[in-house]
Amino acid sequence: MTGGGDGELKLLGMWASPFVLRVKLALSFKGLSYAYVEEALFGSKSELLLKSNPVHNKVPVLIHNGKPVCESQIIVQYIDEVYTGTGPSLLPADPYERAMARFWATFIDDKLLASWVQASRGKTMEEKMERLKPTFAAIETLEAAFGQCSKGKPFFGGDSVGYLDVMLGGLVAWVHASRARHGLELFDASRSPLLNAWVERFSVLDETRAVLPDIDRLVEYAKIREAQAVDAN
Amino acid sequence: MTGGGDGELKLLGMWASPFVLRVKLALSFKGLSYAYVEEALFGSKSELLLKSNPVHNKVPVLIHNGKPVCESQIIVQYIDEVYTGTGPSLLPADPYERAMARFWATFIDDKLLASWVQASRGKTMEEKMERLKPTFAAIETLEAAFGQCSKGKPFFGGDSVGYLDVMLGGLVAWVHASRARHGLELFDASRSPLLNAWVERFSVLDETRAVLPDIDRLVEYAKIREAQAVDAN
């Protein structure tokens, strides 16, 4: 390790969270080792989490040498800026490309993921599909962005995985879980062929397989969460 | 200018927007000159805006050598990363402090500004005050963050204005407009004394005064916008 990159890393997470998965992916691609603390799925949050993220009380939190960093986009940028000499750079070197990567990361959160979460709370399959319309529209927009960012290469980051691959990569396990549970292809081969191929390409990388959760277990978890959400409607 | 910082800058804006004001403030503190294109308040959006920000169709857009950058947080980071040799650095040099600055910038947008906008759409003063409760809670949380970031110095950035000063600074004209219109003190001296003093300190800086809109004009604009929002309720 070089630069400011020495020291102890501890990740507070929850195994199924796409936001936590982003951080796990970033650490995996950077080749960094860390202690992992799993938050309880149900019941009260840990003292360590409440102390480390008093503003939002949410995972992921990365604790580096005792200092907590919160929110997946900010954590992944922090990892990349601190561990400059370790593993590949995730953010592009060029400021304009970096701005584009940040723009599309925000787009994924605000447009794609937000509507997908809303859809998962739909009571019936019909309601879910109706609520997925903006999700599919966002995926089509992101399909064009993939062409722009990757410049014909296999990843958003070009020849190797970068920031946006990790940001979207946090959702990949859920793409597989949607397919397994509902036969639903979110990154559909006809509407978003580039992203459809990207999902398969990203999923089989060693660094991805090392952190991706078991899909059957994710499907079981999704059933429990959706039942709770429907009850709360 | 040094680094990648040469070239033509054009800002697409709307004079009253706090997001546009952030970019104007960043350019002002960096001492950068630029062409400014005002979008029409009402009626259709310009071809240049639609072409430059096809995803969101929103100002601000900064066009640098013909290439558009969108969203105020991303634009200000871009300016700081491209014009490294011009004016002060806005983002902190230390990665952890940079992560904190990004965290609080997101907090300002998601918690403070979002609830404030909702409050402005309240039909009565009572409804507005009720909806302002989360805004005041966010300001009290930010008060503690100011102490953490400034380390007893006058600005979030320390001795000089930094990223978070510019992010919160975009709201300062609206703080003055709320006071002028409703006698409402958002950054109240008893609940948030540090931020209350910060508003006054930030407002009188030459670089701020150079870009801050006229408060009376802002009050008139707020009346028109709120009437429209109430109609649309």
Please describe the structure with a list of short key phrases separated by commas or semicolons.
11 helices, 7% strand, homodimer, globular, 233 residues, 57% helix, alpha+beta
Q: Topology of this protein?
A:
The structure is a homodimer of 233-residue chains.
Chain A: E1 9-13, H1 18-30, E2 35-38, H2 47-52, E3 61-64, E4 67-70, H3 72-82, H4 95-120, H5 125-131, H6 133-150, H7 163-169, H8 172-182, H9 193-203, H10 206-209, H11 215-232
Parallel strand pairs in A: 1-2
Antiparallel strand pairs in A: 1-3, 3-4
Helix pairs in contact in A: 1-3, 1-7, 4-5, 4-6, 4-7, 8-11
Tell me what the structure shows:
- 2 copies of one chain form a homodimer.
- Chain A is α+β, with helices and mostly antiparallel strands and 233 residues long.
- Chain A folds into 2 domains: 9-82, 3-Layer(aba) Sandwich (Glutaredoxin), CATH 3.40.30; 95-228, Glutathione S-transferase Yfyf (Class Pi), Chain A, domain 2.
- Chain A has 11 helices and 4 strands.
- The first copy, chain A, has helices at 18-30, 47-52, 72-82, 95-120, 125-131, 133-150, 163-169, 172-182, 193-203, 206-209, 215-232, and strands at 9-13, 35-38, 61-64, 67-70.
- The first copy, chain A, has a 4-stranded mixed sheet with strand order 2-1-3-4, with helices on one face.
- In chain A, helix 1 runs parallel beside helix 3 (72-82), helix 4 runs antiparallel to helix 5 (125-131) and helix 4 (95-120) packs antiparallel against helix 6 (133-150).
- In chain A, 39% of the residues are buried.
- Chain A binds chain B through residues 4, 55, 64, 67, 69-71, 73-75, 77-78, 81-82, 95-96, 98-99, 102-103, 106-107, 141, and chain B through 4, 55, 64, 67, 69-71, 73-75, 77-78, 81-82, 94-96, 98-99, 102-103, 106-107, 141.
